[in-house]
Amino acid sequence: MVTVSVHQPNFMPWLKLMAKILDSDVYVAYDTVQFTRHEFHARQHFRTRSGEAAWLTVPVVSTGSRQMLNEVRVVPEQGWRDDHLEFLASNYSSAAYFGEVFPLVQEVYARRHEMLVNHNLDLIEQLCRYLGSDVKIVRAGDLPHTGTREERLLDLVRNAGGDAHLTSTTATHVIDWSGFDEAGIPVYVQEFSHPEYPQGDPPFLPNLAAVDLLFHTGTGAARIFDTCNRAEPLERPLPEQRGDAATARFGANAGATSG
Known about the structure:
By secondary structure, this protein is of the alpha/beta class. The protein has helices spanning 15-22, 79-92, 98-109, 116-130, 149-159, 178-183, 210-217, 221-228, 239-242; strands spanning 3-7, 26-29, 43-47, 53-57, 136-139, 164-167, 187-192, 229-233. The strands form 2 sheets. The protein has a 6-stranded mixed beta sheet with strand order 5-2-1-6-7-8. The protein has a two-stranded antiparallel sheet with strand order 3-4.
């Protein structure tokens, strides 16, 4: 069985998204959806030395019109890259595995990507390989997908070579999975329980970039992801219970852009 997950290629993904990617055989980076500044496409939370959450944001070039994710360019000046690396060094240099993980991040920043998606996916792949994962990463823009939102999602899973789909959207969105049923593609739901791990001085701060976990636990993060994440077969309501709810309702973050 080849399990495919689909999600926007966010900047420095948080633990749940990283766990979903690691639990997949193929991760389709959904880069053919609209870029939004209020989501996590170009920003993420990190922990400061004082124990507070702080944003790191990738500045992007504004065109004054709507852009797809794969069209978004980063600001070419070097300053923001230096600022990001300085922030990470200042706040994580005392972490147990900083010396292993920080050079991996530096290497990606040194590539000076022009496109936001390239920057984000290089970071994701770098961290996956460090954790020993061989998940295949492909871009939605390289795969045929047309039709309704559900039809596009099914196209992406099929054209990525998948015969099973891992989703994380069912907790907040009602999706019509009938096309997957008809195609004989089972759907599994990500069940994620946020772990606590050594993070420096208490209190523990959840919902940060996954690299926070890596700085503190190194390759041991792979075992933590295994224990906090599982996939369960999707339980579908009976047809008479669905009613109009079988029509997909998608939110701006996960549902409209991932499955």
